[in-house]
């Protein structure tokens, strides 16, 4: 594990990269403990984090998906078979049965930090 | 014969002839007879089952015999038997049996003659000589093709509809073609003198020679194997072959021998129920004469087949006065006639629009008070044909002048109006299919109603009906853009906007998606806006373009270096092998004559490229919607059959178009002779060598819906070939839909403009849209600005930063990627792999040495 900042007793935060390292409207893969996390920065500057695991293909690839919107909802599309996920909730918008894990994420002093799920 | 039981026994129906009409009869009976009251035996003379004779000529330009086939799957079984290659020879009307050439005797309760017609060969001395052909069957076409390949020239005797079809065939085979017509104009039965004149000029403009008002007196064999034609006016013409296509005669020999009543000028006489003088015998199609009239078109034949099917099952249908309207594309020229084309109705008026320069002639025939449309002739532009034909006999809604210049409005098309005359489908039937069967595109309407499946001339009308119903699929790209890809391309090109953010802000809504972002990225790349990973563009790319490699099922990528024309030096081959070995990659030969290296993790890609680029290799764009490969054979350099240097041309073409971003991938092939070892006709762009240069084919496809490419131009010099391919590719880049291969694009152009290939000719050769100079310049800009996308990333620290497994642990491989070994190479683990099998985590840990 890399450097962690403890802000609340129940949750560990892991700084994964600088906010400026995130290209607007794209994702980046990060390792948080043993979890693979996809961190996204949207057009409006907001930051989101989902599990990088694509439940359809079972490959760790969601960070490489195209970031966009559907009916105003910020989304990422799996690069494998293009299922679209809501960046806020992890819900798959093409299959109501499927949801990916959402991680808490925040920006502190120009660093992007991901919390344990 | 049939046993007596309480259940009505099946009766025997024998159909003589398996042409279009005979086949239609069988299908019509089977549709109406689910209880199988009729046991059917079909006797066909040809070795092939029914095929689309209307589209016969397309057989020479790429359509296969199978594609022309008309027999639906499951049509024939133990109760409905088809005997091919066994002609009926004798009918015994007393015993009610038919005997065939092979000696087969079949009993019948009902007999249908569908023997069609034979080409009429004028009684000219020498007409039976070697080198004389008729134009009727696929076998005829095979013989004509074989001969045309050996002799350089040919004459078609007959300037009617069939004659011009045959001339088209000879012309497409590269023969120097002359049409000889006895009447004072071409297509005398369909068009008037003015229309015939425009047609002649258009056809001569294509390089054919036309002789009208010419009678052939005799044919003499020449020492070189050719033929000399001697005309009545004393002129002579030496030629390599002669095709007689001067009309047809009903095949009534069987009926004649059986003592059935014939028409005054031949043909099997039938009543309005299509029954002959023997109540057990019927006749349909071109062999039949209904109340004194014979028909040489498929639509009346189909109608007769339906009448007989109805009657065999107890109905009382009758054959009405059939619509003899015709629309054809002859040598790329639209010709249509409908209704009373020759103004035979008393006091009929003719309104003519003629543009001899543009090669357009239109005539409407109306009643003397101009209140009703009676018929018309269209030459050069028959776009209004389908709609005009439905208006015959109806009160005119516009003046004849408006109809001629602006075309008719189809909004008020009555439900009873016949849209497809070949299959007799009304506007009401099509509307019902759209609303009740949820047919939302032309293909669905075709499948549901059969409309538009024979000659296709009504497809524009079907599209209009779809559009009017509101059912037609919107061509909007996605929820973010109302525009189609082609419209968006024009907008981006014209406005000069060069970022997605600007484009979506001005012309779209929301923040885009996995559909519009790659589409915009492709448009920007086609317009030459620098590296595809520059700035914001990187975020628009699908993962393959984003990582310049092809994603595989476990999230690793495959890497394909460019191997132009499939030509590879030993050194390059060794480098590729060493890279595969050192990085532990699975290697496989692709279908495009190159080598694919699988199993590369994101963070390995730059190091792999470094090795390849240092050895002089570059990106093969296997990941891009772009030119992939130009496959080739070794050509005349090595091959004893080759007639041109196909490898050099393939390398030149691949180098010229490498990196060109398009709506979908583009594949090409070059074959050094007609044996076609490079399989060029399955490619978007196919080139096949001839003795005189190159033939260019377009719109081929393998994959889910295979399609042979169509011949676009023949015997081109290399320079001319390159000009045409330049224009073709750039026009495709600009106008195709997203993910539309050239095959579908060409078919869509055909649906929109009547004939996709002819339309492409007008745009790319005749420059009707005056865009050729612009297309040429766009290709030049592409060629001049090409850079290797891999090398550019290696030179850019910012871009290299994205090639990491984890932003916070760039050196740690993704632990979920696992391989097992199979046949000496890696493969991704599968769910059912034995857990005890040797598993390699994140690829072999070989030391990677820079050299």
From TrEMBL, chain A:
Q: Does the keyword 4Fe-4S apply?
A: no
Extract the InterPro entries matched here: NirD, Rieske-like_NirD, Rieske_2Fe-2S, Rieske_2Fe-2S_sf
Q: Which PROSITE patterns does the entry mention?
A: NIRD, RIESKE
GO MF term set: 2 iron, 2 sulfur cluster binding; metal ion binding; monooxygenase activity; nitrite reductase [NAD(P)H] activity; oxidoreductase activity, acting on paired donors, with incorporation or reduction of molecular oxygen
Residues forming the Rieske domain are 14-114
BP-aspect Gene Ontology terms: nitrate assimilation
What are the UniProt keywords, alphabetically? Answer: 2Fe-2S, Iron, Iron-sulfur, Metal-binding, Nitrate assimilation, Oxidoreductase
Superkingdom of this entry's organism? Answer: Bacteria
Q: In its keyword annotation, does this UniProt entry include Oxidoreductase? A: yes
- Family annotation (Pfam families): Rieske_2 (PF13806)
Q: Which NCBIfam families match?
A: nirD_assim_sml
Identification of the protein by name? Nitrite reductase (NADH) small subunit
From TrEMBL, chain B:
- Binding site residues for [4Fe-4S] cluster: 633, 639, 673, 677
Which InterPro entries does this one have?
BFD-like_2Fe2S-bd_dom (IPR007419), BFD-like_2Fe2S-bd_dom_sf (IPR041854), FAD/NAD-bd_sf (IPR036188), FAD/NAD-binding_dom (IPR023753), FAD/NAD-linked_Rdtase_dimer_sf (IPR016156), NasD-like (IPR052034), NiRdtase/SiRdtase_haem-b_fer (IPR005117), Nit/Sulf_reduc_fer-like_dom_sf (IPR036136)
- What region holds the FAD/NAD(P)-binding domain? 12-292
In which domain of life is the source organism classified? Bacteria
**One Pfam family here:** Rubredoxin_C
The GO annotation for biological process reads: energy derivation by oxidation of organic compounds; nitrate assimilation
The residues covered by the BFD-like [2Fe-2S]-binding domain are: 419-467
Q: What is its EC number?
A: 1.8.7.1
Q: Which family is annotated?
A: Belongs to the nitrite and sulfite reductase 4Fe-4S domain family.
Listed name of the protein: assimilatory sulfite reductase (ferredoxin)
Give the originating organism.
Answer: Haloactinopolyspora alba
């Amino acid at each position: 594990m890399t450097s962690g900042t403890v802000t609340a007793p129940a949750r560990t935060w892991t700084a994964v990269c600088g906010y400026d390292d995130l290209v607007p409207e794209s994702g980046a893969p990060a390792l948080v403990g043993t979890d693979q996390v996809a961190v996204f920065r949207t057009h409006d500057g907001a930051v989101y984090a989902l599990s990088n695991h694509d439940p359809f293909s079972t490959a760790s690839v969601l960070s490489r998906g195209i970031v966009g919107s559907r009916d105003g909802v910020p989304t990422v599309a799996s690069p494998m078979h293009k299922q679209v996920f809501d960046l806020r909730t992890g819900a798959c918008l093409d299959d109501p049965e499927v949801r990916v894990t959402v991680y808490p994420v925040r920006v502190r002093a120009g660093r992007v930090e991901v919390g344990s799920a | 014969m049939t046993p007596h039981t309480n259940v009505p026994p099946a009766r025997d129906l024998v159909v003589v002839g398996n042409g279009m009409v005979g086949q239609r009869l069988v299908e019509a009976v089977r549709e109406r007879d689910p209880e199988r009251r009729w046991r059917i035996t079909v006797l066909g003379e040809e070795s092939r089952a029914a095929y689309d004779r209307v589209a016969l000529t397309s057989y020479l330009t790429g359509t296969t015999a199978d594609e022309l086939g008309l027999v639906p799957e499951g049509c024939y079984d133990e109760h409905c038997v088809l005997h091919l290659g066994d002609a009926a020879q004798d009918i015994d009307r007393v015993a009610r049996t038919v005997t065939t050439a092979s000696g087969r005797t079949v009993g019948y309760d009902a007999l249908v003659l569908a023997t069609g017609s034979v080409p009429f060969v004028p009684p000219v001395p020498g007409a039976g000589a070697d080198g004389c052909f008729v134009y009727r069957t696929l076998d005829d076409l095979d013989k004509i093709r074989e001969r045309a390949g050996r002799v350089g020239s040919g004459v078609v005797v007959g300037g009617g509809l069939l004659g011009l079809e045959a001339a088209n065939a000879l012309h497409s085979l590269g023969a120097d073609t002359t049409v000889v017509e006895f009447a004072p104009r071409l297509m005398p039965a369909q068009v008037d003198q003015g229309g015939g004149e425009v047609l002649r000029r258009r056809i001569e403009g294509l390089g054919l020679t036309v002789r009208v008002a010419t009678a052939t007196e005799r044919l003499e064999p020449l020492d070189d194997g050719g033929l000399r034609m001697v005309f009545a006016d004393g002129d002579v013409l030496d030629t390599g072959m002669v095709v007689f296509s001067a009309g047809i005669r009903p095949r009534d020999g069987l009926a004649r021998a059986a003592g059935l009543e014939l028409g005054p000028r031949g043909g099997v006489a039938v009543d309005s129920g299509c029954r002959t003088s023997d109540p057990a015998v019927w006749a349909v199609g071109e062999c039949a004469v209904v109340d004194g009239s014979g028909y040489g078109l498929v639509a009346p034949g189909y109608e007769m087949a339906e009448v007989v099917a109805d009657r065999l099952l107890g109905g009382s249908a009758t054959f009405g006065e059939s619509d003899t309207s015709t629309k054809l594309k002859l040598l790329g020229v639209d010709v249509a006639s409908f209704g009373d084309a020759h103004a035979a109705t008393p006091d009929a008026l003719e309104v003519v629009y003629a543009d001899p320069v543009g090669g357009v002639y239109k005539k409407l025939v109306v009643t003397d008070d101009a209140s009703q449309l009676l018929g018309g002739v269209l030459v050069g532009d028959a776009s209004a044909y389908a709609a005009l034909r439905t208006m015959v006999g109806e009160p005119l809604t516009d003046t004849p002048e408006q109809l001629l210049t602006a075309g008719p409005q189809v909004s008020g098309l009555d439900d009873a109006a016949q849209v497809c005359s070949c299959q007799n489908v009304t506007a009401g039937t099509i509307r019902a299919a759209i609303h009740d069967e949820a047919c939302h595109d032309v293909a669905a309407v075709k499948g549901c109603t059969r409309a538009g499946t024979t000659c296709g001339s009504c497809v524009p009308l079907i599209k209009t009906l779809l559009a009017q119903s509101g059912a037609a699929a919107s061509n909007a790209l996605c929820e973010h853009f109302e525009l189609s890809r082609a419209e968006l391309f024009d907008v981006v090109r014209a406005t000069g906007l060069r970022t997605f953010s600007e484009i979506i802000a001005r012309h779209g809504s929301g923040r885009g998606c996995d559909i519009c972002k790659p589409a915009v990225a492709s448009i920007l790349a086609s317009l030459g806006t620098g590296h595809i990973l520059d700035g914001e563009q990187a975020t628009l790319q699908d993962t393959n373009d984003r990582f310049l490699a092809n994603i595989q099922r476990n999230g690793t990528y495959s890497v394909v270096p460019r191997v132009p024309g499939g030509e590879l030096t030993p050194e390059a081959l060794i480098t590729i092998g060493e890279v595969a070995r050192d990085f532990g990659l699975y290697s496989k030969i692709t279908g495009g004559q190159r080598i694919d290296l699988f199993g590369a993790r994101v963070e390995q890609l730059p190091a792999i490229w470094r090795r390849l680029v240092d050895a002089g290799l570059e990106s093969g764009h296997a990941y891009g919607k772009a030119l992939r490969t130009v496959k080739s054979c070794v050509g005349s350099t090595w091959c004893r059959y080759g007639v041109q240097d196909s490898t050099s041309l393939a390398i030149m073409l691949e180098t010229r178009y490498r990196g060109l971003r398009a709506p979908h991938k583009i594949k090409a092939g070059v074959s050094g002779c007609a044996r076609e070892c490079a399989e060029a006709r399955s490619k978007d762009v196919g080139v096949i060598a001839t003795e005189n240069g190159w033939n260019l084919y377009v719109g081929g496809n393998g994959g889910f819906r295979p399609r042979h490419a169509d011949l676009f131009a023949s015997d081109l010099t290399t320079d001319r070939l390159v000009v045409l391919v330049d224009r073709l590719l750039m026009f495709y880049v600009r106008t195709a839909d997203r993910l539309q291969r050239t095959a579908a694009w060409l078919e869509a152009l055909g649906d929109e403009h009547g004939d996709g290939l002819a339309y492409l000719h007008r745009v790319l050769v005749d420059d009707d849209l005056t865009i050729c100079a612009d297309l040429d310049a766009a290709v030049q800009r592409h060629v001049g600005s090409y850079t290797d996308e891999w090398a550019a990333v290696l030179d850019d620290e910012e871009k290299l930063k994205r090639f990491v497994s984890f932003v916070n642990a760039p050196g740690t491989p993704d632990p979920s990627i696992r391989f097992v070994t199979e046949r000496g190479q890696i493969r991704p683990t599968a769910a059912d792999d034995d857990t005890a099998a040797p598993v390699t985590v994140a690829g072999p840990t070989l030391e990677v040495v820079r050299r």
